[in-house]
């Protein structure tokens, strides 16, 4: 059987990084409300908002756009159910990580536990998302690169959680979001490089019903960016109101 090689669309690669940066920045903004929450409802609202921005915007959207950026030399569609579940895993993992670190006084043991949990969730999202590929190619993985990608996910998760509770300035958050974008992309593309494709000749069941489209990556980017921008705007409005009430 003949090995196949991956090629990337540079525009979509750039968009995947951009959406990861915006998602990270939005998540850091929402995380400001976790320690300031006056009751459990406000606290969980801030946790879920930050977890959704991080898991859904910075991580899952980046992952899926980057998957669409990859030309594998064969037709590929994506199972909608597995893709949806992978997004939910990322959101839940990030929300749990934020909830653990944000409970009470900031402690390293909480950061370590939450980072491992969140990192494993992110890695699980990534490989489940790759399992959602419907293609005639036969897929296998390089175990050492898989392990490296999981390690990167854990370290990146710990960094994201630390930043969420230790940064306040807008410029600091922007710089951190730029770094987080690099970390998230690093995990994804390391995981993609672990994938080894061999040419096959049989399309799997459900191939025709899978998600596909020449402009699907751009559409997802535009939709996610609009949602993140709206969420970010609402966050700024809430912060201004909170500041006005405290005067």
TrEMBL record:
Question: Which keywords describe this protein according to UniProt?
Answer: Membrane, Transmembrane, Transmembrane helix
Residue span(s) of domain MHYT = 8-198
Checking InterPro entries in the record gives: MHYT_dom
The cross-references to Pfam families, in alphabetical order and at most eight, read: MHYT
Q: Give the transmembrane ranges.
A: 12-32, 44-68, 80-101, 108-133, 145-165, 177-195, 215-237
Highest taxon of the source? Bacteria
Q: What is this protein called?
A: MHYT domain-containing protein
Organism for this UniProt entry: Dyella kyungheensis
Q: What is the lineage of its organism?
A: Bacteria, Pseudomonadati, Pseudomonadota, Gammaproteobacteria, Lysobacterales
């Amino acid at each position: 059987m003949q090995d196949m090689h991956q090629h990337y669309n540079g525009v979509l690669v750039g968009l995947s990084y951009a959406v990861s940066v915006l998602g990270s920045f939005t998540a850091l903004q929402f995380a400001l409300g976790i320690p300031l929450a006056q009751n459990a409802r406000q606290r969980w609202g801030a946790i879920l908002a930050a977890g959704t921005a991080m898991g859904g915007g910075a991580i899952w959207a980046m992952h899926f756009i980057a998957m669409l950026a990859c030309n594998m030399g064969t037709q590929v569609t994506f199972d909608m159910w597995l893709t949806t579940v992978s997004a939910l895993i990322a959101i839940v993992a990030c929300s749990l990580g934020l909830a653990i670190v944000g409970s009470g006084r900031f402690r390293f043991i909480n950061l370590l536990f939450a980072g491992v949990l969140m990192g494993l969730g992110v890695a699980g999202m990534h490989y489940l998302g790759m399992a959602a590929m419907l293609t005639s190619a036969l897929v296998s993985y390089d175990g050492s690169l898989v392990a490296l990608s999981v390690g990167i996910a854990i370290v990146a998760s710990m960094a994201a959680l630390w930043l969420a509770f230790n940064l306040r300035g807008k410029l600091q958050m922007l710089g951190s979001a730029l770094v987080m974008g690099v970390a998230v992309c690093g995990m994804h593309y390391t995981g993609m490089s672990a994938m080894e494709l061999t040419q096959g000749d049989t399309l799997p069941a459900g191939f025709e019903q899978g998600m596909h489209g020449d402009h699907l990556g751009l559409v997802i980017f535009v939709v996610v960016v609009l949602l993140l921008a709206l969420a970010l705007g609402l966050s700024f409005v809430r912060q201004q109101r909170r500041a006005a009430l405290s005067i």
